[in-house]
Fold Phosphoglycerate kinase.
Amino acid sequence: MSKRNVADLVEADLKGKKVLLRCDLNVPLDDAKSITDDTRIRASVPTIEYLTSNGARVFACSHLGRPKDGPDPALSLGPCAVRLGELLKKEVKLAPDCVGPEVAALVNASADGDVVLLENTRFHKEETKNDPDFCKAFAEPFDMFVNDAFGTAHRAHASTEGVTKHLSPSVAGFLLAKELEYLDGAVNNGTRPMAAIVGGSKVSSKITVLSALLEKCDKVIIGGGMVFTFLKAQGLSVGSSLVEDDYLETARAVIQKAESSGKQLILPSDIVVADKFAPDAETKIVKKSEIPDGWMGLDNGPEASKEIAEALADCKTVIWNGPMGVFEYDAFAKGTFAVVDVLEKITEGGACTIIGGGDSVAAVEKSGKAEKMSHISTGGGASLELLEGKVLPGVKALDEKVASPVKAAPSAGGVE
């Protein structure tokens, strides 16, 4: 996915230009409408600063939550405008809407270097419908488009895909470009040996990404609740552990696919089991073939963690999506944090480690070792779809990077 990004644009391309910038400012708010995690807002700052430092006038837009019937004061982007202004150390006005005459007036009155945040795009039902007339009106006041919202790039919405039909150039921001570089680059061009760690509760939610990664990777490690569907598919007793009986054949097909293709499929050899799903449950460690009736598996055992460490020791690229257990409870967090420790070690040794969204990101953040990884993805669903090999509508709509022409007779330095 060789797409143009803001780094391909210089001051001559940007000065005085009215830029529509799609950010992902869908941040959590408490009852007082205070932001409880500003990670996504901070992630937007580098692209905004690059645009404004080159004289652009930036009009950022985003959705927030799922408004049901038009504008909802509880889902206003007002708190995001305040926080963005604090991070940029300049005033960030909040527009009363994302489309219409009041927005056009703000755009026309802007000065080079200004930053304005447009109101929640989903206050208009036409946004998620990607309505053509709405897209045209949305894009009308602007000169160009930058998409820096990887988390919504898998949606063909007006603010991610539709406006590109009316704005040129349409390019990626730094955050989106980085996501594509790591996720798409790792899956298609990762240095071998390559491994994937796929965890989480259900086979049904991960089967497509699991199958895709099995084709690309040399080793696939399975963890989390989906383990027990695989163990039952092998004829083992799993007690009261989570099992998707409708996916037993699917699990057998995955096992067969790994065997026939010479890939290493790794399931935990021992399990932490509990007598109930609770933080104060009674626990014990058993072999995978000895899960007692009435007990449920909730984490990898210590031998499983050692085997994962051994399997990953020589890997140069590792993609992780999904925890090994119920890491929110301390009693069942050791398997997940053992993976974090291994990834930290191999990253220090030069491996590329990519944490692909969702609960695995939360686990790495909780461990305090997020900065030790090569890349932490900002998109849950978008990460999964990219790992599956799907084309993301918000990415497909952006301009292709044009290769520099090769001159016939370059002077002493080769190709320019």
Notes: The radius of gyration is 24 Å. The chain has a mean pLDDT of 93.
